[in-house]
Every structure is written in structure tokens, then in C-alpha cells.
Specification:
This protein is mostly helical. 62% of the residues lie in helices and 0% in strands.
């Protein structure tokens, strides 16, 4: 089962490694399609899709600080809407 908490933890790891935002976006996009038929709820799926749009251009990118805040909220069990 892939959870928002697990995603938050993995997102923080990617931020700590300073992975490119476009790579993080691709990862989010892939996660959506890998897990959508399993257990991802609508809100979490929407979050993954929205984060996946970061690879479409700089106007869609989120800063590492914003991504870190999103990760913290997910780890805390909050629903995050962008």
C-alpha cells in the first residue's frame, strides 16, 4: 500500500539529494500511474498529477521549500491541495 506519508518521506529524501525538480515531477507522474488502481484516493492522485506538471515548464515548478512543506504536511497526515 502506497501512502501519502510514504510519499512525503520519499519526497523529502529527493529534496535532500537536490534532485532536479523536473525529475521529481516525472517521479510523481509515474507514481500516479503505478498506484492509481491500487489505493491512491482522489485527493492524493490529484496532488501527484499536479506535481507531475512541474516537468512542463518553469512556470509550473515548485521550489524545494514548497515541496518540503508539502512533504511535512503529508507526513503529518494532512490532505494537501495545491
Amino acid at each position: 500500500m502506497y501512502t501519502q506519508r510514504k510519499f512525503g518521506i520519499e519526497l523529502k529524501e529527493k529534496i535532500a539529494k537536490a534532485e532536479l525538480v523536473s525529475d521529481i515531477a516525472g517521479w510523481c507522474h509515474n507514481l500516479y500511474y503505478d498506484y492509481i488502481s491500487d489505493v491512491i484516493d482522489t485527493d492524493f492522485g490529484e496532488l501527484l498529477l499536479q506535481l507531475g506538471t512541474m516537468e512542463m515548464g518553469s512556470e509550473f515548478e515548485r521550489s524545494y521549500e514548497e515541496l518540503d512543506q508539502i512533504a511535512d504536511r503529508l507526513i503529518a497526515g494532512e490532505n494537501v491541495k495545491l
